[in-house]
Amino acid sequence: SPRPRNSHRKWPIARGLYTRTCRVGDLSLSILFQWLIKGQNRWHGKVEAVETRLKTWVWVQAFLRQLEADGYMAALLSRGDDDAGAVLVKVNRFTDGCRVYTQVRTELGELAWLAGTGSDLVPESDADSYIGRQRKYDADIWVIEVEDPKGTYGIDGVVLED
Prior knowledge:
Layout: E1 17-24, E2 27-37, E3 47-49, H1 56-69, E4 73-78, E5 87-92, E6 98-105, E7 111-115, H2 124-137, E8 142-147, E9 158-160
Parallel strand pairs: 5-8, 7-9
Antiparallel strand pairs: 1-2, 2-3, 4-8, 5-6, 6-7
């Protein structure tokens, strides 16, 4: 029977992951390459790296702990999909108003934020109605509220303009 094509390769392709063992001195290391392979050019150096993404519940727990460590009061208002739910962050400045940030990805796949309620602060009722509209479209979103009465909190990362 004929031998399967490419059966001589030792690096099996399984969901875009390569696993191989290499020797460095007397130490054998198992190296896991996470590459996105595009087309037939994979053996000609055209390989694009893939960012490893955390599950959303892990990211949310880390975000809440970081807020607590920074001295901010934060609460999880709505729990979404554990694996890949979107995240909304409502920054409540009480009498000054609120701003809601939506977690998005740039065209390069990097994490960024979009000011969903615009660049200006809005009343809390407007922020809550925005969150309600978003939940109507996607029930798997996570909603976190950060209380910031002094107006000192700034969201980490790039904030995209509308």
